[in-house]
Design goal:
This protein has helices at residues 17-39, 66-69, 164-167, and strands spanning 4-6, 9-11, 41-45, 60-64, 79-83, 93-100, 105-109, 112-115, 118-119, 144-145, 150-154, 170-171, 175-184, 190-191. A hairpin with a 2-residue loop joins strand 8 and strand 9 (118-119). 16% of the residues lie in helices and 32% in strands. It has 192 residues and is an alpha+beta fold. The protein has 2 domains: 4-38, no CATH class; 41-191, Umud Fragment, subunit A (Ribbon).
């Protein structure tokens, strides 16, 4: 207890310094976590089967944001989380793999993906890659050149993924982070 004395008036005022220190520590920790989550790294849970077998429904991943904060963009092969381009969907955030970047040409032939006319090797892909029915008056004709400021994403589970073949390329600005690690479940912890 601290005693504060004013001239001519002796008043004892208890100041619970322990509680003040604990509150300051808690506020500093919360502030640090919010800063880290906003600008450095953020956890996400995988909502769909579109990335099987790389990621499964319910897997928890960490997505780093520093690359994006420094003005860089995701590269081909990166697994990213991004805002769902279909507003009003029950899933606000999706997770897919970057297949092509702005200026590259995407094509699909005989179940394989071609970028700039060259067949790419995709050891992570499950199933064949074919164009999808878009519906809603949308149409993508192949070969397709990815516009500036956009990227082409596809799920690793090609036969069970609504991706750029369905909703078109996504804006680079919609990318939230680049997945770097799976941290749950414990038996599948590892870098991506």
């Amino acid at each position: 207890m601290v005693v504060l004395e004013e001239p001519g008036n002796e008043t004892r005022l208890p100041i619970p310094w322990g509680a003040v220190i604990y509150a300051a520590i808690i506020l500093a920790a919360i502030g640090t976590v919010l800063l880290i989550r906003s600008f450095v790294i953020e956890p996400f849970s995988i909502p769909t089967e579109s990335m099987c077998d790389t990621l499964r429904v319910g897997d928890s991943v960490l997505a780093e944001k520093i690359t994006l904060e420094l003005g860089e963009t995701a590269s081909a092969g990166d697994v990213i989380v991004f805002e769902n381009p279909e507003k009003g969907s029950e899933k606000d955030v999706l997770c897919k793999r970057v297949v092509a970047c702005a200026g590259q040409t995407v094509d699909m032939k005989n179940g394989s993906v071609y970028i700039d006319g060259k067949k790419i090797t995709e050891d992570y892909a499950k199933g064949d890659s074919y164009p999808l029915y878009l519906g809603k008056g949308k149409h993508i004709s192949y070969p397709y050149k990815v516009p500036e400021g956009e990227i082409w994403v596809m799920g690793d589970n090609r036969e069970n993924s609504a991706d750029s073949r369905y909703f078109g390329p996504i804006s680079e600005d919609s990318v939230i982070g680049i997945c770097v690690m799976r941290y749950l479940p414990w038996n599948r912890i590892g870098l991506l």
